[in-house]
Amino acid sequence: MKHGCFSSRCSERTIARHEVVEVEQRRGEGGGGDGGVWGDGGDGGQAASSLSQADDVVVIYNRVPKTASTSFTNIAYDLCGKNRFHVLHINTSKNNPVLSLQDQVRFVNNVTSWTEMKPAFYHGHVAYLDFSKYGVQGKPTYINVVRDPIERLVSYYYFLRFGDDYRPSLRRRKQGDKKCVSAGDPDCAPEKLWLQIPFFCGHHSECWNVGSRWALERAKANLVNEYLLVGLTEELEDFVMILEAVLPRFFKGATKLYKTGKKSHLRKTTEKKPLATQTIAKLHQSDVWKLENEFYEFAQEQFQFVRAHAVREKDGELVILPQSFFYEKIYPKVS
Fold first, then answer.
1. E strand residue ranges, the chain
2. pLDDT digits over 44-102, tens only?
3. Residue 26: CB partners within 8 Å, gap ≥ 6?
4. Residues with catalytic annotation?
5. Which candidate, 143, 210, 245, 255, has a CA 20 to 30 Å from the CA of 287?
6. Residue 218: how many CB atoms within 10 A of its CB?
7. What's the rounded Cα separation, in Å, for the pair 154 and 167?
8. Helix, strand or coil for residue 55?
9. Model's pTM, two decimal places?
10. How far apart are CA 20 and CA 37, in angstroms?
């Protein structure tokens, strides 16, 4: 049995294991004509070792908290049955985004060898992992979303106190203080801004050194070299549209679902209020904000560059550009 999650709650692990056993059993019974795990008769129980190139793929969304990650993940859950892929939540103990070395090895081995789950979409609040350092073949496709750092902090602050409309009955902790920053509340200290950079930087110790310029540069390099696409919370629909174009195996129908579906718009932080001008000015004085904002603007520029070359406006709507290259002068000629 492979370790498909990192939950500290035994009951959840037990349920997950039963679900995995059922999936593996249905895959094994696929040759009986019931179409395997999907029950559509499409592959006649194709062995896991002979996965097609289209199915031998893993997407990892190492989601940053309070960046509309639940809204986006709901799209994957809504589409997984129709588009025939698995969605797996990486549930880390105490929501710790840094895995122990032994869990890093377990996770990497699970993701690369757990063919019964492929094609797979993994999501969770986990820092970036470079699969190439663990001696395995193949790397997953990383995607992510970032948000204006102050807006993310505000959303996090009010979420802790008032929750959201996703689980409205869940009790949260103490009520908010309008003078949070000026009063020195630790929940809105500038250090709390330091999150998007380490999530992209990864599992190096320096990544979690608040205010590290090295971590910022590492995060930038990973964003452009290791992530297929990084979107913006503020422009989530465009992110979904581009993903549907480049990963249709997972996201076919995602744009329409985002525009019309109810789930994808469900989660909104309750009681959130705009910050006072003096509060914003104080946060802007922080070196941590300057680094996090530099990273956000870097991600914003990269996303807008990708979008400019991927879509165009037609009748007031954005549409994906068609293929703009073809092959010619192919030799030797086929007789």
1. 58-61, 86-89, 120-123, 141-146, 227-232, 311-314, 317-320
2. 334 445 789 889 999 999 999 999 999 999 999 999 999 999 999 999 999 899 999 99
3. 34, 36, 37, 39
4. 123, 125
5. 143
6. 20
7. 19
8. coil
9. 0.80
10. 11
